[in-house]
From TrEMBL:
Protein name: Unannotated protein
Domain YncI copper-binding positions: 42-165
Source organism of this protein record: freshwater metagenome
Positions of the UniProt region annotated as Disordered: 185-206
InterPro entries registered for this protein in UniProt: YcnI-copper_dom (IPR012533), YcnI-like_sf (IPR038507)
PROSITE patterns: PROKAR_LIPOPROTEIN
Length: 206
């Protein structure tokens, strides 16, 4: 009888430990993007070459969760060309100022992008001639509500800036040459998940 209780207790401990390990592993899995993001989908941006930059809007305007109806992106004078691709339900335009800065605008022709849906807005570009990291300030409108993604990047909190930024500016890294192989479809770092198909080892008891 006592032996049966010990066996039951042992399996209960293993089950609880496995559950705790699973929860710990899930905690490291990144969730859906919480702000306007840029995607290259596995193809690096190479200086002075053409490519596709995709603006991704993962949700509507918080906290009300209203649908997105308009976006405006600013590209500096270093960008040599930019043309939004056609997206169903949206009309787009590009204006170039005398200083070379480009303003890309998308306006919904219907009800817009629902709060619970993510939308991709590809842009055919010629990357800047010089390698570096480039900001692309982007304004997301949900009717009259604005989420302005332009807060400067800060590596850590200091006396002037918080971390992370409330509305971080989308940024893209342009490389001098194609000498690197992206590590995933989106070019992000790979994530190692904990093996949950077996229970973690228990410490041996004397």
């Amino acid at each position: 009888m006592n032996r049966g209780r010990r066996t039951t207790s042992r399996f209960a401990v293993i089950s609880l430990t496995t559950t705790a390990a699973a929860i710990a592993c899930l905690a490291v899995v990144p969730g859906a993007g919480a702000h306007g993001t840029l995607n290259l989908y596995g193809k690096d941006a190479i200086a002075n070459k053409t490519g596709t930059l995709t603006l991704t809007i993962p949700h509507g305007c918080l906290p009300e969760g209203a649908p997105t109806t308009k976006m405006i992106m600013q590209l500096g004078s270093a960008w040599q060309a930019a043309k939004p691709a056609s997206v169903a339900g949206w009309k787009s335009s590009v204006k170039r100022a005398t200083n070379g800065q480009r303003t890309l605008t998308w306006i919904a022709t219907g009800s817009g992008l629902p709060n619970a849906e993510s939308g991709d807005f590809p842009i055919t570009v010629r990357w800047p001639k010089k390698a570096g990291t480039y900001n692309t300030p982007t304004a997301q409108y949900c009717g009259s509500q604005l989420m302005d993604w332009k807060d400067p990047f800060n590596a850590a909190a200091d006396g002037d800036l918080s971390y992370p930024a409330t509305y971080p500016v989308p940024r893209v890294r342009v490389l001098a040459s194609a000498a690197r192989t992206p590590t995933a479809v989106t070019g992000s770092s790979p994530i190692s998940l904990c093996p949950l198909d077996r229970a973690p080892r228990q410490p041996r008891r004397s």
